[in-house]
Design a protein that fits this description.
Elements lengths: L6 H11 L2 H7 L7 H8 L5 E2 L14 E3 L2 E3 L3 E3 L5 H4 L3 H12 L4 E2 L7 H7 L5 E4 L5 H13 L4 E5 L9 H6 L9 H8 L2 H8 L19 H11 L6 H11 L3 E6 L2 H9 L4 E4 L13 H12 L4 E4 L6 H9 L4 E4 L1 H10 L1 H21 L13 E2 L10
Parallel strand pairs: 4-11, 5-6, 6-7, 7-8, 8-9, 9-10, 10-11
Antiparallel strand pairs: 1-12, 2-3
Helix pairs in contact: 1-16, 5-17, 13-14, 15-17, 16-17
């Protein structure tokens, strides 16, 4: 077993152990992938401010999210087809998150269903909702999330029209993968993954199959999915879902100060500054670059989280310094999941936690809740002078 010291170590192991189409699914963005790349490269432009002769005893990374204590300012983001990265992947990730003390968010497009995860994890999790044209399906899945005691609903706003990801088209991505000769050869070269998949019945979108009208197999599942994302997702519809859910509501996909004000006005308990990991509007600004303008626009009206680009504990520190209350990781934990299953998710969390703790100490910070703009050095033109 190789020594794992950073997230990139997990990424390299993940690439060796996971079929190409699912590695490419995670490790790609839309069109030219400019936004995908800048989500991480823009973090490198921010520097940390080293401080000395400080009391570094009794440090704590603990904060709160949605009124609940968490071990560090990190949550696991919703990732579609997570159960194709590792057999029963959503269950493994939920268990790792619960044991570590951070939130897990289950995607609508998950392989393991809401009920599957609820049956295998004793800790309440969050559920992410894609709004579909089939209102009966939407009403039903909200009710299923309520019955499963999901403690927050994460409503995604930026995927009503799908951005094109070239690799997925060229790989013929499906869940489960079609049994073409190239796919069979690739899976044979990944025996750990293949044997695990043979041992589980969870190999398709179980939140949809058997729940959406007429969806019983891969053929009609694909047709249903391709036509169901609802382009008519307005703020009025957000209000309706808010009222129907009745619990904690997080709006994901905010990338503009004006939209942030609208999200606060509709009563969101939190918003996630996110460009969907660079997988939607290529050419949009990175999440970390727009974060300060959104914090300025909304202030303390609602909790602000940052998603897209977090690959280290130092990235978490930088996001908090620029005004985020907490962060979400997607690819960072998927690398661990695909590399080592549940243990890999735990390792990803341990890596980020250790980096955050040590970096806090070297910046002279005892508690993660104390991180502020004074702990980083930001280029004067970081936010850009756009006209």
């Amino acid at each position: 077993m190789p020594v794992i010291t950073n997230i990139d170590d997990l990424k390299q192991l993940y690439k060796r152990r996971t079929p190409k189409m699912f590695y490419d699914y995670a490790e790609s963005g839309s069109y030219t992938e400019q936004t995908f790349r800048e989500n991480t490269s823009d973090f490198a432009k921010i520097r940390l401010r080293q401080r000395v002769a400080r009391d570094l005893t009794n440090r704590s990374t603990a904060v709160s999210m949605m009124g609940a204590p968490v071990a560090m300012p990190v949550a696991l983001a919703p990732v579609g087809s997570c159960g194709m990265q590792s057999p029963d992947g959503e269950i493994k990730a939920a268990r790792a998150a619960a044991a570590f003390g951070v939130p897990f968010t289950l995607s609508t497009m998950s392989v393991c269903s809401i009920e599957d995860v609820a049956a295998h994890s004793s800790t309440p999790f969050w559920f992410q909702l894609y709004v579909m044209k089939d209102e009966d399906f939407v009403d039903s899945i909200i009710e299923r999330a309520r019955r499963a005691n999901c403690s927050a609903l994460v409503l995604t706003l930026d995927l009503q029209i799908l951005g094109q990801r070239h690799k997925d088209i060229k790989n013929g991505l499906t869940t489960p993968p079609k049994l073409t000769l190239p796919n069979i050869i690739d899976m044979m070269l990944k025996p750990r993954w293949s044997l695990g998949m043979l041992a589980t019945p969870r190999r398709t979108f179980r939140n949809i199959v058997g729940h959406a009208k007429g969806v019983t197999d891969l053929a009609n599942l694909t047709a249903w999915t391709n036509e169901q994302f609802d382009p008519l997702l307005t703020w009025d519809k957000v209000r309706r879902i808010r009222d129907q859910w009745g619990g904690k509501l997080i709006l994901k996909g905010i990338l503009d100060a004006e939209d942030a004000r609208m999200a606060a006005d509709v009563g969101a308990d939190a918003m996630i500054v996110s460009n969907h990991g660079g997988r939607q509007l290529d050419g949009a600004l990175s999440s970390i670059r727009v974060l300060p303008s959104i914090v300025k626009a909304v202030g303390d009206q609602t909790e602000i989280y940052l998603d897209s680009g977090i690959r280290s504990g130092q990235d978490v520190l930088k996001a908090l310094a620029l005004g985020a209350k907490s962060t979400f990781i997607g690819r960072s934990y998927i690398y661990g999941l695909g590399a080592m299953g549940q243990a890999g998710v735990t390792k990803a969390l341990e890596v980020i936690h250790k980096e955050l703790d040590i970096s806090m100490a070297l910046c002279g910070v005892q508690n993660a809740s104390q991180i502020s703009r004074e702990h980083v050095l930001v280029p004067a033109d970081f936010e850009g002078n756009w006209v």
